[in-house]
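Example record

One chain of 616 residues, shown exactly as stored in the release files.
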Amino acid sequence: MGNLNVTKLSKKKDKANYIHQLTKDIEALDEMIDKDMIEKAPIRIGAEQEFCLLDNEFLPSGNALDILKDIDDEHFTTEIGNYNLEINLDPFELKDDCFSELHKQLKDLLHKAKVVAEKHNTKIALTGILPTLSLKHISIDNMTPIQRYYVLNDAIKESRKQDFDIHIKGVDELNLLHDSVMLEGCNTSFQSHLQIHPDDFIKSYNWAQAISGPVLSACTNSPFLFGKELWSETRIALFTQSVDTRANSFLLNEKQSRVSFGNNWETGSISDIFKDNISRFRSLVTAEFEKDSVEMLRNGEIPKLKALCLHNGTVYRWNRVCYGVGEGKPHLRIENRYIPSGPTMKDEIANMMFWVGLMVGRPKPEDDIHETMHFKDAKFNFFKAARYGMAAQFNWKGVIISSQRLILDKLLPMAYRGLYKMGISPRDAENYLTVIENRVNIHNGSEWLTKSYRNLLELKKPIEALQVLTANMYIKQEHDYPVSTWQVLNKDAHTTFDINKKVVHVMNTDLFSVDKKDSLELVLNIMKWKNIHHMPVINAKKDLIGLLSWSDIKNHINEIEESTKCVQNFMKEDLITITKEKSINEAKQIMATNKISCLPVVKGKKLIGILTSNDF
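Predicted structure tokens for this chain:
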């Protein structure tokens, strides 16, 4: 989709033309398969690296287009968020030390990006979901100003006819109503591509589905979103909901989301997968198409099937079928979309090698995985891995087995055999697959992030803890040592980078509040029970309307039996407040000047925190 100038599909004529092109593309694909025109050898691998841009305080830096312009390299392209970019790596033939070569190219290209980014006072980070993202970063203002992103946003919103209702429940719980697809911009992936022999495609695709859960469990790296600890790989839950075209009231009528694992094993042909997508999901966007694909075949040309690829680009299966043309030859690939970016380049190449090794190392009995494993077990395994990471237990063909045992005892040996069969150098195979083994035995990315963050929260408020976490992650990434070698941060860990302390870093957000009509007896007891010296007063609209201080009411303790005593009679209504972006020094000055020990922190009229002299 990134290669096309797309527009929203709305006019009848445009819809008719697009459907015509789409059906011709399917017809052309069937013909190429029937005539044995799809490339069978050599087998190639490829990857896409998405990465985050950070400012000097490790917050998202919305200057992607400026950096992209200065990089001036066709390997780089935009993402939906203006704080992300993507690298499209070259395809490599699956042999010898191809993974080391891919690693080297990735390192060279990221270094090129880092040199340019540094001139813009920007840093580069690899992570599934950037820990320091906040709600302000997912506004439409932070969408990369390129037509296709606005078109896709408008088309999905028009299809839904309501805001996106995000609900993710993990250790914490996130409930959010949002008005754009910018939530998708929270997700950063390392997408791996493997070319597949056309005669083996359906068996390979089903096998890719079967191994998704175990592979993902070792690779999770996205436990946080907006400071909430959710799934081990929160991207899976978030992406499913962030581009869902189904209105909530119609979920039962359209059973499958555009982002999905699928509902059944594949039993037909390659083109049946494309046909199923077209049948289930209506086209959202269109582009200009120059030629009829079938006519191109008749004239000896290889068509790029642009209409089909455009539609395919708006259906986000976690294992996605891809058609492409390389060096004038058509080929088919499976794109692995569920593995997150980071924690390091070496971890990413190891993830890719583990997946590719399993794909090419499929034992003969697993050719019929659709007969020996229930599809819903494969699907359930995938979501268990996303939720629990290495703590997941899988139903592997009727046997309950831990993630660790399945990977160490069955899958890693299988991956080694597959890689050796393809001529991968033993040195390369051991170098990267040992990374997976160590990660299984020690910790993966999401485990390191979670343990470190919990430790940091013992001495820091969430915003500062997330910045310190991200800063230390960045420092460790620069060395490219795998995450299993990273020592978990202790509670007093800090950063050598200067973080400008603001109100948001020290304010309390775990708040108790009362209504102006609440009895004074209740409020006094709450304040004593919870050792609270200041109680905000909130109205029905959740607006801050007053503040009750212990010093103002302590002299009335003996009067609380009088039923007329309520909060309204004692609260202060003329309040001095502050916003979360103000500096600590400014807050201290306000409190000193006005001789107060408490500052409510507001966004508009809404209370979002409390700052007291004790917090300093």
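Notes: Residues 248-254 have pLDDT under 50 and may be disordered.
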